C-alpha cells in the first residue's frame, strides 16, 4: 500500500488455482513444507504442492472430516487457523457454513508447535478463510511467525456484513504493518 515493493517475482508457477514464486532464492523444492488453510474440497493446490515433493498439511474444519493421511501422502487436519486457540470456535454462517458448528482453531504458532515444526520454515502458507484472514494476519504479525514463512498466499475477503465498516481503519493499519515487513 504505502510501503515500497520489496520484491517482484519474475517466475510465477500456477499450482492448482494459486501461484508460487519460483525465483531464486524462493524456489520451492524438496524438502519443503506447506500449510494450506481453507480447502472446501478443492485439492488442486495441495496436490500440486505434494507433486513438487513437499510435505503438505491441509486444514479445514468446515469439511467435517476426521484427521487423516490422504492417498498422496498429504495430511488433512480437522482444525482451522485462528487468531487465538480454542476448541469451541463458533463460525459465522456464510455460503460454506450453513448450520451451527463448533471448530477447533489454533494460531499458526500453536499449529507449528503441535506438529513439531516450530524450528522449521514453512515454504508456502496458503490461506483462504472467508474474512477470518484479517484477525489471523494481525496475530501472525504480533507473534512474529512471518519470519518462519517464505511465501504467503492469501485471498482477502470483504463481505457486505463483515468485517464491519468501523473495522476498516484497523484492517488498513494491519495491512500496512504487514506490507512493511
Q: What's this, in brief?
A:
Pfam families: Methyltransf_22 (PF13383). The chain has four helices and eleven strands. The chain is an alpha/beta fold.
Describe what this molecule looks like in 3D.
With 181 residues, this protein is α/β, with parallel strands linked by helices. The chain has one domain (28-179): Rossmann fold, CATH 3.40.50. Helices cover 20% and strands 25% of the residues. It comes from Candidula unifasciata.
Overall spatial form: globular
Number of helices: 4
Looking at CATH, which topology would you report?
Rossmann fold
Profile the largest sheet: 6 strands, mixed
Strand content: 15-25%
Structural class based on helices, strands and sheet pairing: alpha/beta
Separation of termini?
Answer: 12 Å
